[in-house]
């Protein structure tokens, strides 16, 4: 009973309290009753606003990251691929498809479609590399191979990838990228060609001096023998033929020397159009092949070695002639172009003259195209295999580019790029002046040469054909001693002929420097079997008055000596 009374009292008190709270709330001002839920709502809104701001920042960061990633891939020319080995699903990114010439919707996301486009010669190597990675032998997959482009050609790609495995170690996903390395491969091929050519050139440079010394002795003795005969004599014709053969051997050596690092082109501002017309006409004269030149009137000038570029045009014109034994037409076009994009990575941006030489001859087999610039490679029965190799070397030394496209029975197209000159006009040609001679003079000349055979031939030749007194020296030291002695005795040498290279001794380059310190007016001719040496092509800047390339005709030596010794004008340095 007492407990029941306690509960009733407590309930009454609770009701009274509740009624008091209700009364208190009812007694509150209406504004306070409205503001209370508004404050809660504002707090919720602020919290939501902050969450929205964080979400927006995260989205912007994600977008920025995606854009940065996309730009990196675009700049790196990378295309992405992904292969799920469980479901068989394959993904190729739009950039991946663009590498081989397709738009995103034009190439299927199909693994078999990729396999069909890999070059047959590369497929096994690619598959072996993948399997080694799947077996865990490599941490990453790395392989370069050729893949067929939409236009039918093959481009090179570098594939990089990694795999994801399940708990048992089995590969379940394989993903990575393809990088277009076609241009890098072309540059690599050109570097290999250049290295091969330089190796041949170094070999040629090593033997050229001795070889041309022997030819000089041969040509010299032939000349002496011819002086003893009448032109009507049958033996005279035989000796003339032998002399011509000797100079053909010299020309072969010169082609080899052109391949070497030495022999920088002796450049001058020239008209490429005029050079093309003259060279093509001479190269095809007398054949059943005609030449059609399409050369604009305002074709830019170029700073070139006219002899070397003429050799290139001649080589290509003759190749075209040989490709059309039954006759035909060689078309030569030239244009002014500006390279300011990634169209040819072996050339710097700037102005160029583009020359295209086309024929409709037998063409070149696909398996031989990559060999055509190699020294001694030829498919001709009578060819030397030096024409295109020499042309490649010459164009490279002119900081240009050469490339060839050809298909069997479809003809050949050669494209040349030569840097254009900044000059807009050719240099004014100096008028030839007639030199007055005092008549034949009994001069004294000093000849420096270490080859005894050459000295004997020259001594006999000069004695038989001229009135010059000759003295021989074996090296630079003896040459300087003899020259000073004659000068001090008031019986000086009228001219000095110096071999450029003296094995184990002082050569012509060092000797002329010391002679000019003693006698600034020394008249010297540099002579060498290595005709492509920079001293030979720019002899005046080294202190010489003239040059003789071995082997040479005695008429050439006599003319140069006469110009130096009997001419009224003296050599200017």
Count of helical regions: 15
Mean pLDDT score: 80
Summarize the amount of helix as a percent range. 40-55%
Tell me the fraction of residues in β-strands, as a range: 15-25%
Outline: elongated
Q: How far is it from the N-terminal to the C-terminal residue, by CA?
A: 144 Å
As laid out across the biggest beta sheet, the strand order is 2-1-5-4-3
What is the makeup of the main sheet?
5 strands, antiparallel
Number of strands: 17
Rg measurement, Å: 42 Å
- Low-confidence runs of at least 5 consecutive residues: 430-442
Quaternary structure classification: single chain
Describe the protein's architecture and organization.
- The protein is an alpha/beta fold.
- It is built from 15 helices and 17 strands.
- A 5-stranded antiparallel sheet has the order 2-1-5-4-3, sandwiched between helices. Strands 7-9-10-12-11 form a 5-stranded mixed sheet, covered by helices on one side. Strands 14-13-15-16-17 form a 5-stranded parallel sheet, sandwiched between helices.
- A hairpin with a 5-residue loop joins strand 1 (78-84) and strand 2 (90-92).
- Helix 8 (272-284) crosses helix 9 (306-323), helix 9 (306-323) runs antiparallel to helix 10 and helix 12 (476-488) runs parallel beside helix 13 (508-518).
- The radius of gyration is 42 Å and the shape is elongated.
- The chain starts with a helix and ends in an 8-residue tail after the last helix.
- Residues 430-442 have low confidence and may be disordered.
């Amino acid at each position: 009973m007492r407990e029941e009374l306690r509960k009733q009292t407590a309930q009454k008190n609770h009701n009274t309290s509740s009624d008091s709270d209700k009364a208190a709330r009812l007694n509150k001002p209406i504004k306070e009753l409205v503001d209370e839920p508004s404050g809660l709502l504002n707090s919720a809104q602020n919290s939501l606003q902050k969450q929205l701001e964080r979400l927006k920042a995260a989205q912007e960061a994600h977008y920025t990251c995606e854009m940065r990633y996309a730009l990196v891939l675009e700049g790196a020319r990378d295309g992405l691929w992904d292969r799920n080995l469980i479901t068989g699903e394959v993904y190729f990114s739009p950039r991946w498809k663009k590498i081989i010439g397709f738009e995103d919707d034009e190439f299927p996301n199909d693994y078999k479609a990729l396999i069909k486009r890999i070059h047959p010669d590369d497929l096994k190597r690619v598959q072996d590399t993948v399997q080694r990675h799947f077996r865990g032998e490599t941490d990453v997959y790395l392989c370069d191979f050729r893949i067929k482009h939409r236009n039918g050609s093959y481009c090179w790609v570098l594939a990089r990838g990694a795999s994801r495995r399940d708990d048992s170690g089995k590969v379940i996903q394989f993903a990575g990228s393809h990088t277009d390395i076609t241009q890098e491969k072309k540059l690599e091929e050109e570097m290999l060609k250049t290295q091969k050519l330089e190796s041949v050139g170094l070999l040629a440079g090593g033997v050229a001096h001795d070889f041309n010394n022997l030819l000089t002795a041969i040509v010299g003795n032939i000349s002496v023998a011819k002086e003893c005969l009448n032109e009507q004599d049958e033996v005279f014709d035989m000796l003339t033929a032998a002399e011509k053969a000797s100079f053909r051997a010299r020309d072969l050596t010169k082609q080899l020397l052109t391949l070497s690092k030495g022999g920088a082109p002796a450049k001058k501002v020239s008209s490429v159009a005029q050079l093309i017309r003259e060279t093509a006409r001479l190269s095809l004269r007398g054949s059943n092949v005609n030449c059609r030149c399409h050369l604009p009137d305002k074709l830019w000038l170029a700073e070139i070695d006219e002899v070397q570029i003429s050799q290139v045009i001649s080589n290509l014109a003759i190749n075209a002639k040989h490709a059309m034994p039954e006759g035909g037409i060689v078309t030569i076009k030239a244009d002014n172009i500006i390279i300011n994009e990634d169209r040819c990575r072996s050339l710097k941006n700037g102005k160029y003259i583009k020359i295209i030489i086309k024929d409709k001859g037998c063409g070149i087999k696909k398996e031989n195209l990559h060999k055509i610039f190699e020294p001694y490679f030829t498919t001709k029965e009578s060819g030397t295999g030096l024409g295109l190799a020499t042309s490649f070397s010459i164009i490279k030394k002119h900081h240009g580019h050469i490339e060839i496209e050809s298909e069997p029975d479809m003809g050949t197209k050669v494209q040349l790029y030569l840097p254009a000159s900044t000059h807009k006009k050719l240099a004014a040609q100096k008028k030839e002046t007639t030199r007055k001679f005092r008549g034949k003079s009994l001069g004294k000349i000093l000849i420096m040469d270490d080859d005894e055979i050459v000295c004997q031939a020259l001594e006999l030749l000069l004695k038989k054909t001229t009135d010059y007194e000759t003295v021989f020296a074996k090296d630079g030291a003896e040459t300087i001693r003899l020259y000073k002695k004659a000068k001090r005795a008031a019986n000086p040498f009228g001219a000095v002929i110096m071999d450029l290279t003296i094995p184990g001794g002082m050569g012509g380059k060092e000797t002329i420097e010391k002679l000019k310190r003693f006698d600034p007016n020394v008249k010297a001719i540099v002579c060498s079997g290595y005709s492509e040496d920079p001293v030979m092509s720019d002899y005046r800047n080294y202190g010489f008055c003239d040059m003789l390339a071995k082997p040479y005709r005695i008429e050439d030596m006599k003319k140069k000596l006469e110009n130096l010794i009997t001419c009224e004008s003296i050599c200017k340095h």
